[in-house]
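2024-03-11 09:14:02 DEBUG pipeline.ingest accepted 1 chain
2024-03-11 09:14:02 DEBUG pipeline.ingest length=133
2024-03-11 09:14:03 DEBUG pipeline.predict start
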Amino acid sequence: MTALARALVGPSPSGGGPVPSLTDRELELLQRVADGTTYVQLAEEWVLAEVSVRSIGARVLRKLGAATIAHAVYLACQADLLDGRPRRHGDHAGFRAHERRGEDPWLCPPCAQGERAYRAARKAPARQLSDAA
């Protein structure tokens, strides 16, 4: 069962009523699409059929009153559901950004892999110094 995102109250992107609540999965889809991830890539990462990811996208479109997924990203930025800034993934800065947002960075495969590489590279000079002594 997916937890609901916090309810936002205020004008909706389409001009009236409150902004709809989106599930965590719907918010993640919006953010990932905004970052350039395709439905096919999301289906592989989430171990779902592509049609299931498209269904999640269709729910987002319906909830936001958007015509396309790009329009949904725009409306989500206007409603402050997304911050509109690109997010780094796959390096130490992306890992730290997850922590600052209160997210578990180890759940992001590219950032976890990048952090492991970063930590290994930081340890390498220390190992070289100890080997030289």
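2024-03-11 09:14:41 DEBUG pipeline.report Confidence is low (pLDDT under 50) at residues 1-14.
2024-03-11 09:14:41 DEBUG pipeline.predict end
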